[in-house]
């Protein structure tokens, strides 16, 4: 709203087709292939174009003749500016490339603009943020469990499965009510990958809350065995061996109070709609990477497994693999749009698919806070934007959901966010400088 007030604009909150109340068909496990076919990125982009070209302020209450909102709002006479974080940031960026005559400028936060089937890099941000001892033990326990579950010792495999499932079903302060009645046969009936994935449960909220808010509580429990011993600098496994480290991991899994870790509530329809999108066009399969010496995700999570889950969910309505070319035709990592500011968090898992990616197979581009001239992208590998130190996913725009005018409460719509105001005001300030530079040339070539 600050931008709208500063520039005398109108703020519009956009709801994507197939999400929220904008469902042309009921979104559930019974949605058919003929109904899903209208959920594509191209359709979503065209929705914005159609809306912008058709929008009128005539239906807005309390608009007087001398109000700026009474003026024509068509993109040919009024600049439309798109703000979006994560996937909405992708759409805002693609619209600036696809329809520069409609979207004049974009602030894209944490936008994974490069689509890729293999996203084993997703957890690297978390791996980089871990303390040395927690990292060493997490890696060691993950390898140990993978080796046991894929090995030939059936008795050991059954025991490890039972202990892992029991630990996850138990609760803090020795509460085993959730695991009451669990038998080894029941635990062993679970798939190997589902049991191995329990090791990754503490990562569930990392992308939004980072190390301190989501992983540090778990690491403290792990390295102190629930605060019963002094942590070892190199980890428990380096001193007492893998069995002791595994025991400590089980203690941490059971003692971690997941209710105290901030998170957002699941919406089955939203989850299913996004699954449809990544299964059909984006990929982003977050597989395990056995070749990564710091991997904290199970290697049992394979590309084939992700594709199998997609195929089973959506029957015969998907391509063999996600058609990432539908997205990357706009440039992917190499895109260079004008009038776009890209913001990223240093430890955002989705940074790996954004312009600020530092992965080996990326172009290794660098953000520049120098505002480029209107309609003129930066040259070379640089792009206009910034990376927030120590921050994670959409660290700036999530403050926009705060209901109080001072942005100090942080009880946001849908979830609680412990992030600071600094990223919001830093990004806002830079984008305002950019708009001050770009808006005067609106009627020129776009």
Assign a percent range to the helix content. Answer: 25-40%
Low-confidence stretches: 400-418
Q: What is the overall shape?
A: globular
Beta-strand portion reads: 5-15%
Radius of gyration: 24 Å
Strand order of the largest sheet: 1-2-5-7-6
Number of domains: 2
- The helix count comes to 16
Largest sheet: 5 strands, parallel
| Strand-pairing-aware structural class | alpha/beta
Compute the separation of the termini in Å: 25 Å
Count of strand segments: 7
Name the average pLDDT: 90
Give the topology string: H per helix, E per strand: HHHEHEEHHHHHHHHHEHHEEEH
Organism: Armillaria ostoyae (Armillaria root rot fungus)
Keywords: Glycoprotein, Hydrolase, Protease, Signal
Protein name: Peptidase S28
GO molecular function, one term: dipeptidyl-peptidase activity
Architecture overview:
The chain has 16 helices and 7 strands. It has 446 residues and is α/β, with parallel strands linked by helices. It folds into 2 domains: 2-115 and 328-441, no CATH class; 116-323, no CATH class. The strands form 2 sheets. Strands 1-2-5-7-6 form a 5-stranded parallel beta sheet, with helices on both faces. A two-stranded parallel ribbon has the order 3-4. Helix 4 (87-98) links the parallel strand 1 (81-85) and strand 2 (105-109). Helix 7 (154-169) runs parallel beside helix 12.
Structure summary:
By secondary structure, the chain is of the alpha/beta class. The chain is 39% helix and 7% strand.
List descriptors:
single chain; alpha/beta; 16 helices; globular; 446 residues
Lay out the secondary structure:
Layout lengths: L1 H6 L25 H4 L4 H14 L26 E5 L1 H12 L6 E5 L6 E3 L5 H6 L2 H18 L4 H16 L14 H5 L3 H5 L9 H19 L11 H5 L1 H14 L12 H15 E3 L17 H12 L10 H4 L11 E6 L20 E3 L13 E7 L33 H17 L8
Parallel strand pairs: 1-2, 2-5, 3-4, 5-7, 6-7
Helix pairs in contact: 6-12, 7-12, 10-12
């Amino acid at each position: 709203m600050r931008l709208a007030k500063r520039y005398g604009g109108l703020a519009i909150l956009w709801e994507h087709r197939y999400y929220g109340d904008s469902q042309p068909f009921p979104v559930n496990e019974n949605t058919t292939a003929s109904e899903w076919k209208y959920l594509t990125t191209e359709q979503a982009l065209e929705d914005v174009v159609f809306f912008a070209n058709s929008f009128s302020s005539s239906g807005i209450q309390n608009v007087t003749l001398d109000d700026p909102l009474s003026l024509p709002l068509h993109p040919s006479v009024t600049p439309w500016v798109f703000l979006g974080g994560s996937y909405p940031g992708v759409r805002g960026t693609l619209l600036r490339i696809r329809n520069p005559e409609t979207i004049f400028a974009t602030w894209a936060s944490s936008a994974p603009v490069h689509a890729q089937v293999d996203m084993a890099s997703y957890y690297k941000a978390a791996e980089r943020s871990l303390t040395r001892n927690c990292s060493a033990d997490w890696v060691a326990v993950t390898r140990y469990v993978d080796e046991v579950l894929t090995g030939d010792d059936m008795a050991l495999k059954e025991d490890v499965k039972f202990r892992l499932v029991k630990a996850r079903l138990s609760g803090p302060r020795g509460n085993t009510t959730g695991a009451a009645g669990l038998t080894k046969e029941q635990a062993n009936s679970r798939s190997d990958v589902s049991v191995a994935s329990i090791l990754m449960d503490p990562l569930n909220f990392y992308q939004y809350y980072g190390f301190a808010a989501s992983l540090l509580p778990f690491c403290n429990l792990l390295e102190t065995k629930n605060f019963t011993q002094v942590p070892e600098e190199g980890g428990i496994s380096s001193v007492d061996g893998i069995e002791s480290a595994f025991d400590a991991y089980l203690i941490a899994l059971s003692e971690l109070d997941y209710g105290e870790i901030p998170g957002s509530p699941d919406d089955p329809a939203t989850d299913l709609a996004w699954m449809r999108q990544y299964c059909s066009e984006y990929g982003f399969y977050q597989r395990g990477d056995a070749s990564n010496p710091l991997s904290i995700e199970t290697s049992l999570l394979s590309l084939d497994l992700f594709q199998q889950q997609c195929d089973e969910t959506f029957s015969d309505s998907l391509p063999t693999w996600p058609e990432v070319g539908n997205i990357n035709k706009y440039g992917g990592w190499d895109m260079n749009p004008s009038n776009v500011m890209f913001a990223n968090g240093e430890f955002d898992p989705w940074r790996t698919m954004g312009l600020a990616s530092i992965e080996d197979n990326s172009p290794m581009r660098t953000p520049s806070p120098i505002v480029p001239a209107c309609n003129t992208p930066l040259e070379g590998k640089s792009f206009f934007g910034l990376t927030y130190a120590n921050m994670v996913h959409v660290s700036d725009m999530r403050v926009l959901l705060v209901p109080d005018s001072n942005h100090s409460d942080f009880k946001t719509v849908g979830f609680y966010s412990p992030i600071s105001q600094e990223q919001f005001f830093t990004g806002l300030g830079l984008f305002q400088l950019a708009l001050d530079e770009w808006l005067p040339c609106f009627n020129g070539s776009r």
